[in-house]
């Protein structure tokens, strides 16, 4: 596109372009490419840094994890967690964005600032806040609703409780992205619809929602990539428990790698996770393209 | 009738926003309660006895301000460096043609999809082999380039007209001069949204500093919080105070810059 503008003069080897690209590639090779290759190679090895073991074992790590019940539990927890949180993040985010965009709302900036607040706060810290909100002894939730539930220690409520916290933290991001999308929609189409007597639900169903499809996909795909890697809230709030009811795949990888120092099998799981993430992302992009008729 | 509708509509929004801020308010309020009052069943929302003892305890037992300072230092260094590297790489990718340019850009985008779990194990192994455990270089060096930052700045610099650069060139400006005096000032908006994001990411990063830093006095605040809860798990007042210290500054920064912040991300989304 934008071409050779700056390049006319005779260039020394130490031109801005060369220096920049060489340093970038160097950094990239050391801290990105090499670790990726190493993770892949390591997944075929028995690898323990404490006992200094690095032995080739073929696909043994993969067989071991695919036969592990905990692995499958973690995978299904991760998938359920991701889908539920994405659904609520997208729907709550969209509803609030529509409300803030509507002519009826006042104090738009203040509301927007408040809804986005949880998103910009550190996840470790807010996870702690929610641990105490859920506390059976003095937590605000039981107190307000006059309940006696040990949210994070009951295998039926633990995962949903973490989902609620994550949705609370992240819906504001969807709201902001949707607001940006709504503001860029073509105004005349809506005026035409109004003249034709379309009510607001019809206008939403046939205009707003289809026009927002790229935004919805953007939010859904970035959320998918994030939530398939959920870890911090699990570490702080439940440590995978009670039992194995809140194990996510990233928490399992963390535990395998940095508690048990099984770098080999942890790498194998991370490769599986990578394949899942890129597979699902590709499928989502393909679906969008089809929908957009490209 | 219209009036009633407007009031009702905004009351619903208000209810939602109260739900959103209540965890923060509750944490802040509780941090000024003595422990006995926090664990009291059926206690009131506001403190009966107002005390700052929790904050004093946290500081005396754990030197939280030190960790706060450590986080601030690492976050400022990383953010400053990332701004510069993102801008210069973004400039090189947007305004120069060379072999492999599209490939490099594609690769940068591709790595944004790599889960942290893939790279963290070999990176950790590498840092151990370099003998960089317990040093800030291990926290800073791997993060000095950001795929997101490069992407955002490249998109932004593409919109700067070539004529501007050409004019500077006519006046005999060098490439470095053009970058520092023309491109950087013209990228102010994109730079400020990266600044805020990158700062937040470093501030909330947990696992990497947790693995790398062993000395407590060198530790960052996100990890400090977890360590504190491990050692003083029943000192709820102290935990509330510690959490407040790690959240409130971020909220202040956010509220101060929120306009630019929100314009930055929604703009990037719509353009992307």
TrEMBL record, chain A:
Its main location: membrane. Keywords: Cell membrane, Membrane, Transmembrane, Transmembrane helix, Transport. It is a multi-pass membrane protein. It is found in: Cell membrane. Residues 75-284 form the ABC transmembrane type-1 domain. SUPFAM superfamilies: MetI-like. One of its GO terms (cellular component) is plasma membrane. GO terms for biological process: transmembrane transport. Coiled coil: none annotated. The chain crosses the membrane at residues 21-44, 79-101, 113-133, 206-227, 266-285. Belongs to the binding-protein-dependent transport system permease family. PANTHER family: ABC TRANSPORTER PERMEASE PROTEIN, INNER MEMBRANE ABC TRANSPORTER PERMEASE PROTEIN YCJO. This is ABC transporter permease. It comes from Halolactibacillus alkaliphilus.
From TrEMBL, chain B:
One of its GO terms (biological process) is transmembrane transport. Residues 68-257 form the ABC transmembrane type-1 domain. Keywords: Cell membrane, Membrane, Transmembrane, Transmembrane helix, Transport. It is found in: Cell membrane. Its main location: membrane. One of its GO terms (cellular component) is plasma membrane. Pfam families: BPD_transp_1 (PF00528). The keyword Membrane applies. The chain crosses the membrane at residues 7-29, 72-94, 103-124, 136-153, 186-203, 236-257. It is a multi-pass membrane protein. Belongs to the binding-protein-dependent transport system permease family. This is Sugar ABC transporter permease.
């Amino acid at each position: 596109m934008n071409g050779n503008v700056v390049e006319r003069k005779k260039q020394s080897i130490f031109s801005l372009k060369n220096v920049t690209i060489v340093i970038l590639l160097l950094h990239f090779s050391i801290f990105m490419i090499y670790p990726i290759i190493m993770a892949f190679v390591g997944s075929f090895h028995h690898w323990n840094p404490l006992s200094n073991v690095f032995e080739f074992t073929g696909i043994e790590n993969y067989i071991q994890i695919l036969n592990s019940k905990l692995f499958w539990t973690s995978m299904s927890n991760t998938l359920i967690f991701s889908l539920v949180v994405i659904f609520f993040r997208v729907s709550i985010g969209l509803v609030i964005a529509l409300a803030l965009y509507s002519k009826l709302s006042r104090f738009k900036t203040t509301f927007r600032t408040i809804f986005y607040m949880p998103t910009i706060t550190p996840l470790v810290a807010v996870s702690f806040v929610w641990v105490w909100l859920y506390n059976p002894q003095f937590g605000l939730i039981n107190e307000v609703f006059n309940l006696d539930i040990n949210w994070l220690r009951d295998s039926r409520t633990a995962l949903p409780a973490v989902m609620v916290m994550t949705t609370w933290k992240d819906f504001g991001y969807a709201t902001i992205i949707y607001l940006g999308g709504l503001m860029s929609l073509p105004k005349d189409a809506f005026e035409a619809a109004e003249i034709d007597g379309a009510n607001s639900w019809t206008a939403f169903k046939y205009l707003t929602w289809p026009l927002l499809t790229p935004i919805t996909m953007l939010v859904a795909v970035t959320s998918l990539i994030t939530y398939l890697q959920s870890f911090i809230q699990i570490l702080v709030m439940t440590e995978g428990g009670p039992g194995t009811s809140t194990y996510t795949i990233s928490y399992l990888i963390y535990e395998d790698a940095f508690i048990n120092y099984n770098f080999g099998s942890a790498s194998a799981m991370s490769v599986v996770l990578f394949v899942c993430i890129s597979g699902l992302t590709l499928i989502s992009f393909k679906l969008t393209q089809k929908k957009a008729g490209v | 009738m219209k009036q009633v509708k407007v009031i009702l509509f905004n009351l619903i929004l208000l209810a939602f926003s109260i739900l959103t801020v209540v965890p923060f308010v509750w944490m802040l309020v509780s941090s000024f309660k003595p422990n006995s009052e926090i664990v009291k069943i059926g206690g009131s929302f506001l403190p009966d006895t107002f005390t700052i003892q929790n904050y004093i305890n946290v500081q005396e037992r754990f030197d939280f301000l030190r960790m706060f300072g450590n986080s601030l230092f690492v976050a400022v260094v990383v953010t400053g460096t990332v701004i510069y590297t993102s801008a210069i790489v973004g400039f090189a990718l947007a305004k120069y043609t060379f072999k492999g340019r599209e490939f490099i850009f594609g690769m940068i985008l591709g790595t944004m999809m790599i889960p942290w779990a893939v790279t963290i194990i070999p990176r950790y192994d590498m840092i151990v082999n370099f003998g960089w455990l317990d040093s800030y270089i291990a926290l800073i060096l791997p993060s000095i380039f950001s795929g997101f930052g490069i992407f955002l700045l490249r998109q932004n610099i593409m919109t700067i007209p070539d004529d501007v650069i050409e004019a500077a060139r006519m006046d005999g400006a060098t490439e470095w001069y053009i970058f520092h005096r023309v491109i950087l000032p013209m990228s102010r908006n994109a730079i400020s949204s990266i600044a805020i994001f990158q700062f937040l990411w470093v501030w909330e990063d947990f696992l990497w500093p947790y693995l790398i830093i062993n000395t407590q006095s060198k530790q960052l605040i996100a990890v400090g919080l977890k360590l504190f809860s491990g050692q003083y798990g029943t000192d709820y007042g102290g935990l509330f105070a510690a959490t407040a210290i790690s959240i409130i500054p971020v909220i202040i920064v956010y509220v101060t810059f929120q306009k630019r912040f929100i314009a930055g991300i929604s703009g990037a989304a719509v353009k992307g």
